Amino acid sequence: MERPACLEFFSGLGGLGLAVKDRFRVAAAYDIDGDVEATHRLNHPHPLVRRGVESLDAAEIDRHDAVAWLLSPPCQPFTRRGKQRDLDDPRCAGLLKLIELLPRCRPKAILLENVPGFHGSRAHARLRSALEELGHEVRDVEACPSEQGAPVRRRRHFVLSCREGLAEGLAPGATLATDLDVHLDPAPAEDLTVPDELRRRFDDELPGREGRLSLHQWRERRCVARPLRARYGRSASPRSLAR
């Protein structure tokens, strides 16, 4: 039986599409960032459409016959370290466009991912209101990958909705422990090794249980990954790290 189609908006590298691959087939992904296009093409069979979400219309969306939408809109309008401009931030334009198209396209289900600050925002309220007007059951869930056994701490807020109702048990459960080796390649390629000079630059920035935890101590079973970028525009970029 063929899986129903979904669309992934603000797709980046396609993480949300991977999360639902057992239930849905991604018909197309949309993202304006050209830097991710080549990587996306190498990892996914479906096309990445280089187009701003705010420029989409109902005809473009309807041609895919998708029953579900996956959304990961820009989080800068809602981050604690940002200006929290919410709907006044131009980066909300794409999300506002999709909310505008909801009554016309009428997707059966929605999954949105964003930072915890999205919850309680004006954008959050507008999205919930539009979904409820379509007859969707809507649920808010805040969760972290580490609660599902993944060695990553990156708490996020999710909005789930479905016209036919939502299953019980969608809230995150207790933290699950997994061996870090499960998530790492047994023999990683040599060209993926972090250079010693770069690794030493960050060794002193990661506190561990005993003084400092080196970036390369990956065999520590309780290791978790966090993004090195601590704040937008004020920490090391990939370009500066390569110098």
Count every beta strand, where a strand is a DSSP E run of 2 or more residues. Answer: 7
Structural class: alpha/beta
Across the major sheet, the strand order is 3-2-1-4-5-7-6
**What kind of assembly state do the chains in view correspond to?**
single chain
- End-to-end Cα distance, whole Å, is 51 Å
The topology string of helices and strands comes to: EHEHEHEHEHEEHH
Q: Tell me, briefly, the overall form.
A: globular
Q: Which stretches are poorly predicted, pLDDT < 50 over at least 5 residues?
A: 207-219, 229-243
Rg is: 20 Å
How many helices does DSSP assign? 7
Give the averaged pLDDT, no decimals: 83
Quick description:
By secondary structure, the protein is α/β, with parallel strands linked by helices.
Question: If you had to describe this structure to a student in words, what would you say it looks like?
Answer:
This protein has 243 residues and is of the alpha/beta class. It has helices at 15-19, 37-43, 58-62, 93-105, 122-133, 196-203, 238-241; strands at residues 5-9, 25-31, 48-50, 68-71, 109-114, 137-143, 156-162. It has a 7-stranded mixed β-sheet. Helix 1 (15-19) links the parallel strand 1 (5-9) and strand 2. Residues 207-219 and 229-243 have low confidence and may be disordered.
